[in-house]
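DM from R.C. (forwarded with permission)

"hey, sorry to bug you on a friday — could you get me a structure for this? deadline for the figure draft is monday and I only need the backbone to look sensible"
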Amino acid sequence: MALRRSHNMTATFSMASMTDVIFLLLIFFMVTSTFVFPTALEVNLPQSTRQTPLKPSLRLYIDNDLNIYKAIGDETPTPIDQESLGTWLRLQRGQSSAEAVTAALYADESVPYGNIVDVLNAGAAAQVRIILATRPVSTATVKNYLRQ
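My reply, with the result:
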């Protein structure tokens, strides 16, 4: 009579190393992602071949109905009139500890140039540098432009 030994094998898998890998991937994607400021306004930006790495916290919008809106950081844009814009920009300049205060202007491509210049003049009077926001141009458009 042969005695048989019973071998009990357990099929377990340690998830500790898998959670470490997932945690490291999560940290990697959070660090390398870019932050996009969502806008509540529908503004068709003009195209440009140059982009700036500057991400100012002050944002100004001019929609296709020539209404001006202001926003700070991630807050929802609120309407402002042309007369109050200079005062608001001076107030933001006074509250900022930075040497140079910068605002981004998101103007619809249908806005007349004179309205954009009015906002730029208000920024110059308040000593706030205003940069124009554009959307990037495709490489095919740039190649066609350079051929002309």
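R.C.: lifesaver. The helical segments are 16-32, 82-95, 113-125, 139-147.
me: no worries. The longest helix spans residues 16-32.
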